[in-house]
């Protein structure tokens, strides 16, 4: 059985929504995992995550977050975005192809 793994993009704490969106847009993957450190600018407001999610949906992409940032996890849960604390947890919950 094969498993589909999302494209992993590393996000720097100071990267804003436009820089992050550029990375997402340039990826040809349908599912993208963003590894985001704690206290990243992206987590200053839930609006940024909502905007990323809406843009991704328009391009038929799925975004999921990998972060230990509590506020970021709360924001993701509130908008229905998948969020894991580590790549290992992501791998444990792989979807069969």
What is the strand and helix layout of this fold?
Elements: E1 3-4, E2 7-10, H1 17-26, E3 31-35, H2 46-58, E4 62-66, H3 70-79, E5 83-84, H4 87-92, E6 95-96
Parallel strand pairs: 2-3, 3-4, 4-5
Antiparallel strand pairs: 1-6
Multimeric state: single chain
Task: Tell me the Rg in angstroms.
Answer: 13 Å
How helix-rich are the residues, as a percent range?
40-55%
Runs with pLDDT <50, length 5+?
Answer: none
Sheet with most strands: 4 strands, parallel
What does this entry look like structurally?
With 97 residues, this protein is α/β, with parallel strands linked by helices. The chain has helices at residues 17-26, 46-58, 70-79, 87-92; strands at 3-4, 7-10, 31-35, 62-66, 83-84, 95-96. A four-stranded parallel β-sheet has the order 2-3-4-5. Helix 1 (17-26) runs parallel beside helix 2 (46-58). The protein is globular and about 30 Å long. The N and C termini lie close together (7 Å). 24% of the residues are buried. The mean pLDDT is 88.
């Amino acid at each position: 059985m094969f498993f589909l793994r999302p494209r992993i993009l590393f996000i720097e704490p100071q990267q804003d929504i436009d820089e992050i969106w550029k990375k997402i847009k340039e990826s040809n993957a349908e599912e993208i995992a963003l590894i985001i450190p704690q206290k990243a600018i992206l987590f200053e407001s839930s609006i940024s995550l909502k905007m990323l999610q809406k843009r991704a949906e328009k391009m038929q992409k799925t975004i999921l977050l990998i972060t230990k940032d509590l506020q970021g996890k709360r924001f993701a849960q509130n908008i229905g975005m998948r969020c894991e604390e580590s790549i290992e947890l992501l791998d444990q919950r792989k979807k069969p192809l």
